Amino acid sequence: MQLVDQGGKDEINPENEKDWQEKVDDFSWDVLFRNATVFDGSGEPPRRMDIAVRRGRIAAKGTALPEGPARRTIDATGQWLMPGLLDIHTHLDLEVDLDPRLPEVVRHGTTTVLFGNCSLGTCFGHQRDESGQDPIVDCFTRVENIPKPVLRKCVDAISWSDTGGYMDHFADMPLGPNVGAFVPHSMLRVEVMGMEAAISRDPTEQEYQEMESILDRAMQQGYLGLSTDGLPFHYLSNEPHTDKRIPTQFAGFKELRRLMKVLRKHNRVWQTTPIIENRATALLYFTLTSGRLFKKTLKVSALSAMELVLAPRATKAFLGFAKLMNSWLFKGSLHFQALGTNFRVWSDGIVSPLYEELPSTAQLIALEYDDVEGRHALMHDPQWVAQFRDDWMHGRTGGDWASFKAKLGMPDHLVIRDLHRLVFDGAPVADWDGESFDKVHERLLSFMDGDSAQARSDAEREAFASLEVRPETDADFMLFLMRRYDKGFRYWADVSNIDNRATMDYLMHPQALPGFNDSGAHLTNMAFFDGNLMSLKLAQQQGDAMVAKMVKRLTKEPAEFFNIDVGTLDLGAQADLVLIDPEVLKDWDCNDTREYVFRDLFGHHQMVNRPPAIVREVMIRGKLVWEDGEFTQTLGEETLGRALRAA
């Protein structure tokens, strides 16, 4: 057993007592974790051992390390000690400049977050111009479902104007976790072409070259790569462009191929979502990973590996294609980001990312958040009502081509519209909370048929009695709720990974990469901060050997894939560690700890997940930032994490 200083110098053998006494004055440990079950990120089975931290680094590892040099000893008996976890897909670039602590991820043992995903980010500054364009607000509002007042607070905090200044500014703030950033393609297009041109035409040759030059410079500055997006329901939010998609979706294959050449040169990553409108086109674009076709392999990190409720086999098709691309035949490196928990999405009336997919409901979402009158008028327009009924029932009536495709698991729309899958959680009538929509609908129909006993309270009776026209279909019932309550009825639906039946298969799939949580996005709709903990829980059910593999999947593997120096417990490595209580983890249900809280930071409510007592300690750069269920004073007082520069 060797004891090694944080700089890798002065190796001594603590079994030689005289040698130890001579050197003891040269050594002091800030913290000694004693008797922990250590998962080191290598994937090897855990070992019972001690780990010492000095000056922000892993200073020593072994059994029975002497406590004398330690300023503080933490008894970790029965606890799991592992490298800090990585969240490989977030939109915390909006929050970090308002609260650099990023507390909602830290409490989950996450010590590194990656942002600038889905073609959106802030690395070019605010990008506002004299015409009143506000690109960050325009792009983020509907794509990531963040209210405009919150976004404006985030944009107002921006003090840089280029990619270099963005990376440098993290050194001047009391950063909590480490951060890594992609260059966002939508914002790159706006930077070079302006908003109007970015959503209306192809670049000129000069603009192509300028984009390539900016991207190349950003890669030299340490950016992780480039992010793009292909989801068809990602729209702009500002007039006059509410019917236009975000700029990245106006780029053709030629543009991406040229930009990917820059990424290949620097061995960086392309982060993207598939073009699900046309799978053939999506597969064509994914061939850009091929080293055989394009002379050098391109690493691609795509969304997303999960079992969709309405298309359970869709992800397997993409993973099968990834296996082909990654074979010797094509020499690719294509991986799909895997979510480690059930994909539960909350909605406030029609305000939800789910409903951007339907043309009629997208019109409602395009209106300003507080435009109740505008939504009310639209929902009483006969033409819109007819379109809504068609949209809501599309592929669900039986007897037509759309319904046949849906039955085969290839639906035209992935939005959940089956009333038994929609569950009230914050209902306008207290009796409805915890009930599925179909139960309430059934009682309403019975009430309208004359069975007044179906109403279980005065409030429910009043709600039922307010309806003059019988809602025969579930489309009519949904229309009733929207018209009467607008955003005032809250409910959830699991859109994928129901009961986590297939989640482990995707987390461990060789063409997948765990760690996707979408933290910081969809403020009132999602709360996946806990995805990494849930991944560990699912692995725990298969034994310590599987936990060891999962820890590697959440630490060392993504760190290597994205070319960043975190995710290990190697001697001399930055001391980012998390201590987890496996007994509490075993009994935890993530659905029980999701909360809807008001955050003063945003002046707005947010979905969070705050499981108690699972994460005992979190350390970033050798400093304890979370202990016994509370943040320490260190978090937010000094710079702990750093801007990770690839390679």
Automatic annotation (TrEMBL):
SUPFAM superfamilies: Composite domain of metallo-dependent hydrolases (SSF51338), Metallo-dependent hydrolases (SSF51556). Residues 1-20 are annotated as: Disordered. Residues 7-20 have a biased composition (Basic and acidic residues). InterPro entries: Metal-dep_hydrolase_composite, Metal_Hydrolase, Metallo-dep_Hydrolases_sf. PANTHER family: COLLAPSIN RESPONSE MEDIATOR PROTEIN, HYDRANTOINASE/DIHYDROPYRIMIDINASE FAMILY MEMBER. This is Amidohydrolase family protein. It comes from Congregibacter brevis. The lineage of its organism: Bacteria, Pseudomonadati, Pseudomonadota, Gammaproteobacteria, Cellvibrionales.
